[in-house]
Automatic annotation (TrEMBL):
<dbReference type="InterPro" id="IPR002347">
    <property type="entry name" value="SDR_fam"/>
</dbReference>
<comment type="similarity">
    <text>Belongs to the short-chain dehydrogenases/reductases (SDR) family.</text>
</comment>
<keyword id="KW-0560">Oxidoreductase</keyword>
<dbReference type="Pfam" id="PF00106">
    <property type="entry name" value="adh_short"/>
</dbReference>
<dbReference type="InterPro" id="IPR036291">
    <property type="entry name" value="NAD(P)-bd_dom_sf"/>
</dbReference>
<protein>
    <submittedName>
        <fullName>SDR family oxidoreductase</fullName>
    </submittedName>
</protein>
Length: 242
């Protein structure tokens, strides 16, 4: 699909990747951009149409779908990371991440799929992570939710193909946002990530590996678990000492 003249809705558009998506959509000629956030007053980007949205609240998701029936491009960007482990961490925190990062995205897909079909099929972008494929102490709940969201993305892609809706999974390592502020390593610029994702949509791509880190991690998936974990340990050590 063409980004030019599209009608897009971006979740979590008040900062970070979401704000970059909204800005690049406007700059690339989108006819309308719905910028959504749990606190809509924090959206400060000129030229967007602001909507309140909490993707973990089904009533809020339904209200957003009713308010934006002309959407042809859905950008599922909003997400959280609680820094929780699976065995010793708070189970409520794990559930909260799942409700947001997987069920929240799925709820958006379910509510907006009929509008996308009416508007010619359109496209959905699910912002995932290289952590769809690996975990680590202090981030295993996040890994679980992104792995689940990857599987969900692959499933809805098959289910929505008949109505002509493209579903694009976008994977990245670290972006230069508040969530990654504590990592003193190279990070992709939010605007570059947004461009990579939107280029993928225009090319009809089912998957976008937005940086070298995500490409390297995926290339290791054929390894055995032992080989994969050892390779990841080496890669993380090299990253932190670079």
């Amino acid at each position: 699909m063409d980004i030019n003249n599209s009608v897009a809705l971006v979740t979590g558009a008040n900062r970070g990747l979401g704000r970059a998506f909204a800005q690049r959509l406007l700059e690339r000629g989108a006819r309308k951009v719905y910028a959504t956030a749990r606190r809509p007053e924090t959206v400060d980007l000129p030229g967007v149409e602001v909507l309140p949205l909490d993707i973990a609240d089904p009533a809020s998701v339904r209200a957003a779908a009713e308010a934006a029936p002309d959407v042809s491009l859905l950008i599922n960007n909003a997400g959280i990371s609680t820094g929780t482990d699976l065995v010793t961490g708070s189970l409520d925190a794990v559930r909260h991440e799942l409700e947001t990062n997987m069920f929240g995205h799925l709820g958006m897909v379910r509510e907006f799929a009929p509008a996308l079909a009416r508007n010619g099929g359109g496209a959905i972008v699910n912002v995932l992570s290289a952590m769809s494929w690996f975990g680590g102490k202090g981030a295993n709940a996040y890994h679980l939710t992104k792995a689940a969201a990857w599987a969900m993305t692959n499933g809805v892609r098959l289910e929505l193909a008949e109505q002509g809706t493209l579903v694009t999974a976008v994977h990245l390592g670290l972006a230069d946002t508040d969530m990654a502020a504590g990592w003193p390593v190279d990070k992709i610029a939010p605007s570059d990530l947004a461009d990579a994702a939107l280029d993928g949509v225009e090319a009809g791509s089912a998957e976008v590996l937005a940086d070298q880190w995500s490409r390297d991690v995926k290339s290791r998936l054929p390894l055995t678990p032992e080989e994969f974990n050892a390779a990841m340990d080496r890669a993380l050590a090299a990253l932190m000492t670079a």
